[in-house]
Write a structure and sequence with these properties.
This protein is 39% helix and 17% strand. The chain has helices spanning 19-27, 30-50, 68-71, 105-114, 126-133, 143-163, 192-202, 228-237, 252-259, 282-293, 320-338; strands spanning 55-56, 74-83, 89-99, 118-124, 168-172, 213-217, 242-246, 266-272, 301-305. The chain is globular and about 50 Å long.
């Protein structure tokens, strides 16, 4: 769809929390925390502008982890005392969720007032939340029913975000790429087809201004081998404008994911590894981009890190300075590929 709304220099949304914000959250003073969150977001906007990013997020600073936009803003979920290996606190669904008001729209409105750069909001996908919070016998009949209820909430929030001036809205589902493997694991609570139906309901087309992009990040790393048919099924079933896909390893599977992508979809390429401080070699990165350019129009592409830098606030993947260096590298690569005009 080659046009002027590709938002070439992107990132997943989460940034390393500043020390002052972490201290304010630990102190437990609600008013002081609210002030610290606002100050941190304001400074994050300046940080992203100086990096010449073409999107600006709130860094997930007001949230404990990347799921918080939904889990903190709806009823029906209970926080447990358990954690997974990534540091995510486990939540379980005890009733069908109901939104208690806007999820991200209030913060999004502040964000659009702070900058003329395109505001971006990131939400956990409803299929991901349904797959990870459903537990039989707790008041919800099935993971599919839970996902459908969440999809309606997310769909309504997308429309509200667009009305607030947000131009890029990304849903994160870290589980989907695993389902595209030639030998996928057991689907667990939500089957592949049910997950696709839930995601599709959340992002179903609705009127919106020119330049808005709805994106889906289906995972942080490609499987060892990709089932082409399942990949094509994913892309055809979920009607998003933009797919955020990994390209930081240089594997055949990464290219196979991209080859299956329809010509009319944008792609954002996760070109730098957000989990290690070492900087990638620019020539190797360009070789990967050139390989994509052999079968994909790069005018429909953008670049970003492979994942968020701090999807869990208390467990950042890198330090603040390493994060900055990685984002500078993304910006540098974009200028190598597309020049200085975005």
């Amino acid at each position: 769809m080659a046009d002027t709304y590709n938002y070439r220099i992107d990132h997943h949304g989460s940034l390393v929390r500043p020390a002052e914000l972490t201290a304010a959250r630990a102190a437990g003073d609600a008013d002081a925390l609210a002030a610290a969150e606002l100050k941190a977001v304001q400074e994050a906007v300046v940080f992203q502008r100086r990096l010449r990013s073409t999107v600006v997020t709130d860094g997930h600073f007001p949230r404990e982890d990347f799921r918080g936009a939904v889990l903190d803003g709806v009823s029906g979920f209970r926080r447990t005392g358990e954690q997974d290996p990534d540091g995510l606190v486990r939540w379980v669904a005890e009733a069908l969720p109901k939104a208690n008001g806007p999820l991200l729209a209030d913060w999004a409105a502040r964000l659009t007032e702070l900058t003329v750069i395109a505001a971006k909001a990131t939400l956990p996908s409803p299929a991901y939340l349904a797959a990870t919070t459903f537990e039989p016998g707790l008041g919800v009949a099935s993971a599919r029913e839970l996902g459908e209820a969440l999809a309606e909430i997310v769909h309504a929030e997308i429309q509200l975000l667009v009305a607030q001036g947000v131009r890029v809205i990304q849903l994160d589902n870290p589980l989907l790429l695993g389902e595209l493997a030639t030998d996928p694991d057991s689907p667990g609570a939500l089957s592949f087809e049910d997950a696709l139906a839930v995601e599709a309901a959340a992002v179903r087309p609705a009127p919106r201004p020119e330049g808005v992009r709805i994106a889906l990040a289906p995972g942080w790393a490609a499987p060892a081998a990709v089932d082409r048919g399942r990949a094509e099924r994913l892309y055809s079933a979920v009607p998003v404008d933009r797919w955020v896909l990994p390209l930081d390893r240089g594997t055949k599977a990464e290219l196979d994911l991209l080859r299956a992508l329809p010509e009319d979809r944008d792609v954002c390429l996760g070109v730098v590894d957000a989990t290690v401080p070492d900087l990638e070699d620019i020539d190797s990165m360009m070789e990967r981009i050139d390989a994509v350019g052999e079968f994909k129009d790069l005018e429909d592409a953008a670049v970003c890190p492979s994942r968020g830098f701090a999807d869990v606030a208390a467990r950042p993947l890198l330090g603040a300075e390493d994060q900055r260096r990685k984002l500078v590298l993304v910006e540098t690569l974009a200028r190598y590929v597309w020049g200085n005009e975005f």
